Amino acid sequence: MRIRHLVVGFAIGIAAPAMALAQGTTKPANTAPDPALVKIARDTVAQMQGDRTATLNAMAAPMVGMMQQIGIKEPDKAQVLVNEVVLPTLSAHYDELLDIQARGFATILGKDDLQAIGAFYATPAGKRLATAQPQLAQVQMTGLQQWMQTVAPELQGKIVKAAQDHGWAPAGQTKPR
Q1: Within a domain: residue 177?
Q2: Considering the domain boundaries, does residue 85 fall inside one?
Q3: Position 57 in a domain
Q4: Please, what is the end-to-end C-alpha distance for the chain in angstroms?
Q5: 132-149 mean pLDDT
């Protein structure tokens, strides 16, 4: 069972970022984005996130689940911690999130693409998409987890076989020859 969790975690770690990347020309990873481009990206990311309070409130239910996973088993007590600690802390640092995302977007997308995305998010459909983003992200994550659960047994078997074919023992140790 432990290896299954590792395989699922590994696969999600690989698949999730790949799914999140937009198509386009990527710039070299070690190139710092132009500050003017980061500003455009920040405006675009802020539009994409939609209303800050709504976005954070949409995170409340998953955060209650996280509190329960770390040991606060009673849902009402977990909700109190989310309301009193988690959401205010995330809100206080929300601009940092936007800055991090903006730098990432500016590294991957150019000015024209960022402006076009921003223009879309200024439309009624874009505003509805921004409002729906938290729910859509949850649907995507749930779908990814369900998919990984169906693929994990096959993936686990193939990884174990490949490790054996290479002569590797469990836990990354090589077999004596």
Answers
A1: no
A2: yes
A3: yes
A4: 28
A5: 88
Find out whether 33 and 106 touch, Cβ atoms under 8 Å: yes
Query: pTM of the full predicted structure?
Result: 0.63
Kindly give, in sequence order, each residue whose CB lies less than 8 Å from that of residue 151, ignoring residues fewer than 6 positions away.
11
Q: Within a domain: residue 129?
A: yes
The 3-class secondary structure across 49-106, one letter per residue, is: HCCHHHHHHHCHHHHHHHHHHCCCCCHHHHHHHHHHHHHHHHHHCHHHHHHHHHHHHH
Given a contact cutoff of 8 angstroms between Cβ atoms, the answer to whether 127 and 121 are in contact is yes
Residue 58's pLDDT is 82
Structurally, the chain folds into a number of domains equal to 1
Tell me how far apart the alpha carbons of residues 79 and 36 are, in angstroms, rounded to a whole number. Answer: 40
Q: Has residue 22 got a pLDDT over 60?
A: no
Q: In this predicted model, what pLDDT tens digit does every residue of 54-92 receive, in sequence order?
A: 888 888 888 898 899 999 999 999 999 999 999 999 999
The residue segments making up the domain with residue 135 are 2-172
